[in-house]
Amino acid sequence: MSAVSESAVSESAVSESAVSESAVSESAVSESAVSESAVSESAVSESAVSESAVSESGDSDAVTSDSSETQRPSIKYRKLLPRIETTHDALILRPAPFSEPQVEEIPIPSMLPGSVLLRILATPLHSYSKLGFDFYNPKRSPHEQPFIPGSSAIARVSRVGDDATALRIGQLVFFDSVMKGRDSPETIRFCNPVYHGFDPQKMEVIDSSGFADGSYAEFMRAPLENCYPLDEAKLTGHPREWGFAYTPAQLCALATFLRPFGGLSSIDVKPGETVLISPATYPNGVAACMVALAMGAKVVACCHDDAKLVQLNQILSHTHNGSCERITTITWTGNGTKDVRNINACGPMDAFLDISPPGAQGSLHLRTGIMSLRPGGRVSLMGAYDELEIPNLFVTRCNITLKGNWMHERKDVLALIKMVEHGNLRLNEEDGCYVVGEFGLDQWKEALEAANKLTGIGESVVFSF
C-alpha cells in the first residue's frame, strides 16, 4: 500500500513538472512573439516616419538622410510629360446666316497620312485679304462648309506622322499655301484656302482632301511636302553669332517674295540681265523689284504713279537689295512709241515680268513692254486679267518667248529660302521690308482694315501668336 502511494506521488510530480515546463515554454514563446511583434511595429513606425519625411520634403527624387543606415538609393530625374492640348482658337467663316467670321475654340486637327500638325507663329494678311472675306457669301462663294481662311505661315512642327522622313517635332518651318495634287500637280492646283481650283469638280476634290483649312488658327494640319525646314540659328540668331535676328513676323515676307520669284525663275532671269517690271509700285511689283535685285539683275521699274516711283527708287537704291544703282524708274505716259523709246534708253531689255492686278484690263503697258524687248527676249505673264493685247508680228519676228506662270514651283521655294538664309535677300526695315502691324486673332477686323490699306513700299501686316 505504501509503495503504490509513493509511485503515484512520483508520477504526479513528474506530471506537474512537465506542465510547469510546458507553461514556461509557452510563456517564452509568447514573450518572444510579443517581442518580435514589438520589433515589427517599431520597424513599421520608423518606416512610416521615413515615408512621412519623404512626403513632406516634396522631392522624392533627391531624398537624403543624415544617417547612413537609413540612406535610400538615389532615383534618376524623371521628366514630366508636357500638357497635351486638345483645343485651339481659330478664325472661322461659316455660310449664311453668319455674316462675319468668328473666333471659336475648336478641337485640334487630327493627323492624316502625309500630314503634319503645325503650331502657327505668324501668318501674313494681304491687300486682297478683305476682298476674300467679303467674297464669302451664299451667292458668290463656292464653299458650302465652314472653313478657316489663311495664307502661308511661319510655324513649328507640333506633331508628325510615321511617314515623315525629314521633319521633326519643334522644327521651325515655312508653310507654303500653294498646294498641288500629289498624283496630278498640273491639273489639281489651289492656294489654300483662298483659291480652290479651276472648276467645281476640282473644288470638290480639294474640299474633301483634309487640307482645306488655312493658317488663321493656333494649329493647322498641312501636307508634308508644303512644309520647308528653316535654318533657325542663322535666321533668328543674334548678329554676334552671325545670325540675322529675324522675327517670325519678318520671315512672313517669304510668302510675299515667292510669287514674283516664281515668275522671274520661270523665264530664267540671270545675274547681269536687265528686267522690266510693271506695275512696279503695287505690293507684288515692289516684291518683284526687290527679289530681281537680289538675283543680281538690273531692274527697270515702270508705273503710272510718278510719286511712288520716286519713293521706290529712294528706298531700294539705298538698301542692301538695291545697291550698286541697279534700279531705274520710268513713268508710263500712255503713248506707246514714247514709252518704248524711254525704256530702250536704259539699254536692251532681256526679260519682262507683267504682274498686273485685275484693274489693268485694257492698259497698253503689256504691248509696250513686249515691244521693248531685244530679239530673243522673254515675257512672264502673271497678270490677273482675262484679255490682253499682244503685238503678234513683233513677237514672231523677234522670237519672243511668252510664258504664262501660275504662282511658283517647289524648286522656287527652296531657292528663295537659300537666298534669305545666305543673305542675298534681306528682310530688315533698312532693306525695305516693314511690318506695320501685328495683330491677334481677336483683332481680325483691325487686321483686315490695316491690310486693305497697304499702299506703302514694302509694308506688311501679320497675325502673330
TrEMBL record:
Composition bias type Polar residues, residue spans: 62-73
One cellular-component annotation, GO: mitochondrion
Domain Alcohol dehydrogenase-like N-terminal: 139-231
Positions of the UniProt region annotated as Disordered: 1-79
Domain of life: Eukaryota
Low complexity composition-biased segments: 1-57
Gene Ontology molecular function: oxidoreductase activity
PANTHER family per UniProt: QUINONE OXIDOREDUCTASE-LIKE PROTEIN 2 (PTHR43677:SF4), SHORT-CHAIN DEHYDROGENASE/REDUCTASE (PTHR43677)
Name of this protein: Pc20g14540 protein
Organism listed in the record: Penicillium rubens (strain ATCC 28089 / DSM 1075 / NRRL 1951 / Wisconsin 54-1255)
Taxonomic lineage of the native organism: Eukaryota, Fungi, Dikarya, Ascomycota, Pezizomycotina
